[in-house]
Fold:
Amino acid sequence: MKHQLTALGVLALTTTAAFSGGIDRSGQSILAIFEKGNYAELSFGHVTPDVSGVGAGTAPNPAQPTPGQSSGNMAEAYNQMGLAVKTDLNDSLSFALIMDQPFGANVSYPAGSTYYARGSTATLKTTALTGVLKYTLPSNVSVYGGLRYETMSAEASIPFVASYTVESDTSSGVGYLVGVAYEKPEIALRVALTYNSKITHDFNTVESSLLTGGLPVTGTTSVDAPQSVNLEFQSGVAKDTLVFGSIRWVDWSSFVIDPTNYPPASALVSYDSDTITYSIGVGRRLNENWAVAASVGYEAPTGGFSSNLGPTDGKTSITLGATYTKDNMKITGGVSYVSIGDAQTTLAAGLPAANFEGNHAVGVGIKVGFTF
Structure:
């Protein structure tokens, strides 16, 4: 029962990362290190968002150029993959190697509309490989830490800002994580607190715009993938019943993408506030093979204007999942519905350029795990 329900909790926390604050994707969970014995897992997720807005104002002006015009869906569907391998080195020391895609963006405003941002695109991709060592003390307390190697690349085309384009190479950087956990196996209790450091990426970039005469200009841009803190917990509360959840803080206010030749005074991408994302759920074992779970998630809106490349603010989500366990294999599937918080974008003069309301995303995921 403990293994079935733990798998449900991990999948729920992963699929509901869809459209978390900033460009959060995976949630950076390291829960594979707590699996018993030797263990391997492979996960796959697919997120289909629907994010559209309408130009603000009643008459065209530089700050509100397309009043009443629809943007069309500007957020493309994307896939998420992850894998992890964990082994016990001895009775006290364990090691896990985890691959995930922690951050990402897929923006594509339809080119055929009359909306001011039509034809704008942006893509950001990351892949991280994390090695974690965990040492368990006799008191049920464990300490863990490790290194994270991360690659990142990005490109954007913003026609409504002086026909600006930028493309980067693939940059790599190294960060670290440290954490502490307390476990009481007889009631399936675990509380784990993890700090993830920032990771600095130094890109070689090629930019062009009307201000450069349409000619490519090479340069360098430094971007810090944000630091974060995860609090993940679970506990048995009755026979065959488990409560699980998480709290995740991400330092988005320190995340800035500001290429040298981007025309406006503001950065290409920046955030005014950090985000805290909450999730809580309950799982129930039905029999020796099947277990089910449900969870809800919440991220409060931060207010103010949102980026034209990320016109969302907060979210509420619900996730349903099931796990099938047979011998040394467990298969977990889940589906999440995310109600995306309303947002306003701006171009100038502190006026709203567009209102994005009533948007949502649907995420599905599957994970296969083996003990050996």
